[in-house]
Amino acid sequence: MASAVDFGAGYSSSFRLMRVDPATWADAGEIGGFASASIERDRSNDLMESGSVTLMSNYSQRTEFYARIEMLAESGAARERHAIATLLMSPGTCTATAGGVDVELVGRSVLAPASDRVLLAGTYAPLGCDGAAYAVSLLQECIPAPVSADGSFRLSDHVVFARGTTYLEAVWMLLDKAGWAMTIDGQGRVTVCPMPSEPALVLNKANARLLGTEVQIDDGTTELLNRVIVADPEHDQVVESVDMTDRPTSYKSIGRYVDLYEESPTLVDGESLQAYANRRLVEETTVTGKRSYGRKWFPDVHPFSLVRGSMADIGFDGDMRVLSQSIELGAGAYVSEVAEVLG
Amino acid sequence: MEISAGAMAEMGRALTDTTRASRSSQHKGEVLRLDPDGTIWVRLYGGSEQTPVKESTVQAAPGMVVNVTIADGKATITGSTSAPSISAEKVNELMVPISDAIQRAEGAALVAEESAVNAARDAAEASRLLDGVEEVAEEANKTVAQILEDAAIAGDNAAQAVQDAATALSAAQDAQESASRANTAAVGAIAGLSTVEDVVDVVRWLAEHARPTADTEFAGGKKYYDMIDNSLSLVDNEVRHEQYAQIVDSAVISGKVYYERSGTGTEADPYVYTAATMPDPADLASLYELVEGEYVATEDTAYVFGKAYYAYESDEYSISVELDASDYYDKGNPTSQGLYELDDTVRNYLASHIAMTDEGLLISADDTGYHVRLGATGMQVIDPYGKVVGIHGATIQLGSTDGIYLEITNSMLAFKTGSQRMAYFGLNENGIWEMHIANTYVDDMLRFGDYAWVKRSNGNMTIKWLGA
User: Fold this and answer.
1) Which structural domain, as residue segments, surrounds residue A272?
2) Which of B239, B352, B357 is nearest to B290 (CA)?
3) How far apart are alpha carbons B155 and B213 in whole angstroms?
4) Per-residue pLDDT reduced to its tens digit, A55-106
5) How far does the CA of residue A83 sit from the closest CA of chain B (Å)?
6) Quick count: other Cβ atoms within 10 Å of Cβ B36?
7) B52–A173 CB contact, under 8 Å
8) CA of A267: which chain B residue's CA is closest?
9) Same domain for A93 and A6
């Protein structure tokens, strides 16, 4: 979303907590006394996000409810409202101090109701159906938040769900099979989509002020491993991986074998034992670089988003995929982010 | 959407990095059907009505009860409770009688061999002595007494040789018989692995509905079960086919299921029997009823373990003494053997009180009472004369549509005749709540907003303002 507020240049901000009407998903009145909030987002967590809000008020609520954290940002003549996150709030814990009463509300992801319901064992997404649409329908059955699909993909086989599989687990099974992502925006709207290929945030010299003062560079630990031996005693088979690469740890480079031994592996989609060994070698020796950094808040950057850096002098260069975020709201909005280096 | 090579590589890596731990579970289920593309459809007990299975370790067939494993989004049949041949334990169990028979055969063969050797040795000795007798006689150098003594010894040896030869022959026959039994048991065991599939449903049902038999002798055509390891095992299993016969009843018997027949009976268009709903007595002659199964001549060339064979004598079928080749069961007193028989009470009750019809599931409580039908429009109550007198679905209907009946929808309560509303209260076609009725009797007051028609104490009527 194009924004008139320059989030890198400095702006004044105020926050408020709005109750959300689950039927219309629109704001349904303010819950006063907002003091601070923190949001945690992680793409490896099925629920993707959680958070907590501290209110300086005597707010009391007996049942869970949906609430949206909004930020009013002002910079010069520009004045904008941005939804930071929408969460399913549990009744809070109340702390009385000399300064008054603090209430802390604990928020779960809007996806939470889908992780609270289980499918009947043997339920399946049929071969040939639109997997994205099926995933959307599963979510729509459980959660009041708007859910949509950005595109479609066809299932090449039936996907059958085991006993105890939650609706949310089923959705992730479908998305993982297609290499798709899921995002939750500040309004709490859920979108299943292909892995984003366009950057949601570009960090370059021009807007370097968005970036914090410290970038932690982790180029990954190179596993000292160059051969995977896989045995299948049941069929009297033993194979070795074929190393097609020229890495610093390969046999060609160091002149000796460093082995990983596995027995009776689980083969995926009819792959051979040899293909399994080759795949495992790649998986075990793939170097994943990560960047951990702080930055000022910017709209529409979520786990799975692409962040593009062009500041090679500080090691912040190339495309990165956001893995996790921690957002602190109070005196401004600040994001601690971990991103995986691509390519 | 165009994806860069880097993004593609990342996608592949992401698939492995973020692969979530998927659940797996084990199930039992019943095979519903097999599709031409190889998909096997299974109804999981306590699970989905139908689940597609692509891989199976057993030859699945409709009705078979199978073990299903679901993992990584795929369902696989890993075995069959009706085909325990897959388990090594079951194979070992079946191998016991085979091994015993083979051991007996080997033992008998050894005895035969030893006896044959003895016989040959004795015969050689006898021959040698007889040769000596001849020599002595010819040379006349020995006394007659010596000759007679030698002859007696030779005769004894010859008799011993004959006896040893007879023993060898008997042992050889034992060996042959034992080998034959071993072969039969082996054939039976192998065949038994598949025949178990056919009876699994019966056994499963029996596990809940069997009782100790009180019969003092086996009744022909009746099934008996043995309790082995807390599960019931069929002792005899006659070969039956469903048979339908044309109705000879002169009146409709309440509770009896009558069938209508379609098709021409050809291979291309076989007969299909469908349960008739509320049969008309006038149509009885064209209806059918299910009759007992028939016996057919067996085509087995070797005894099948666990399978019963029947003898046909004096127009009756009686179970053969040779229940099976492995002598696991001898015909005798089934009660004293602790066998079980089918408790038909529940099955007979269900058969006479529940029927699947084209219009839905029909349930009757007794011969003369009301019926309930679960159909497409909801639950229908049917009186003893076959008339629908109530429907409970999206619309609730009380009474038969032949006369005045009450119909309740989510916005209307109406007394109707046919499709005509006689009186109603609810939302009319213009979206206004109204009550429509021919006559109204009010005891005290009829109110219109702030005003009311009120009956006065002197019996007159007045309009009174009640206030806002």
Assistant:
1) 227-287
2) B352
3) 63
4) 887 777 778 999 999 999 988 888 889 999 999 998 767 676 666 778 889 9
5) 28
6) 5
7) no
8) B72
9) yes
A14 shares its domain with A87: yes
Strand, coil or helix: what is A27?
strand
Do A80 and A122 share a structural domain?
Answer: no
Q: How many CB pairs under 8 A join A and B?
A: 111
Reported as a single tens digit per residue, the pLDDT across B9-45 is 444 444 444 456 678 888 889 999 888 888 899 999 8
Mutation site for B-interface testing, chosen from A43, A129, A161 by largest number of B Cβ within 10 Å: A161
Contact between residue B342 and residue B236 where contact means Cβ atoms under 8 Å apart: no
Last residue of a domain, one of A148, A179, A194: A194
Residues B162, B119: Cα–Cα separation, whole Å: 7
A167 occurs within a structural domain: yes
CATH code of the domain covering residue A9: 2.30.300
CATH of the domain at A155: 3.55.50.10
With residue A147 as reference, give the H or E element that holds it.
Answer: strand A147-149
Q: Which residues of B touch A46 (CB under 8 A)?
A: 20
How close, in Å, is residue A304 to chain B by CA atoms? Answer: 10
CA angle A70, A74, A78 (to 5 degrees): 115
**What residues of chain A lie within 8 A of the CB of B73, using their CB?**
157, 159-161, 173, 177
**Measured torsion, CA atoms of residues A19, A22, A27, A32, in degrees rounded to the nearest 10:** 0
Cβ-Cβ contacts under 8 Å, A286 against chain B: 13
The pLDDT tens digits of the residues spanning B415-425 come to: 988 888 889 99
Band of residue A147 on the pLDDT scale cut at 50, 70, 90: very high
Q: Report if residue A59 sits inside a domain.
A: yes
Choose the mutation target among A118, A120, A124, A268 for the interface with B, i.e. most B CBs under 10 Å.
A124
Query: Nearest 5°: CA angle at A255, between A253 and A261?
Result: 100
Partner residue opposite A283 with nearest CB, options B16, B29, B50 = B16
- For residues A131 and A263, membership in a common domain is answered with no
Chain A positions in Cβ-Cβ contact with residue B6 (cut-off 8 Å): 319, 342-343
Residue B248: predicted pLDDT: 64
| Residues on chain A touching B52 (C-beta within 8 angstroms) | 124, 126-127, 158, 160
In contact, B133 and B154? CB cutoff 8 Å = yes
Structural domain count of chain A? 3
Would residue A94 count as lying in a domain? Answer: yes
Q: Taking CB atoms and an 8 Å limit, are B48 and A123 in contact across chains? A: yes
**CA–CA min distance B18, chain A (Å):** 6
β-strands A199-203, B340-342 pairing: unpaired
Q: What share of chain A is helix, strand, coil (3-state, %, to 5)?
A: 15, 45, 40
Regarding an ipTM greater than 0.90, the answer is no
Instruction: Say how far apart CA B354 and CA A49 lie, in whole Å.
Output: 53
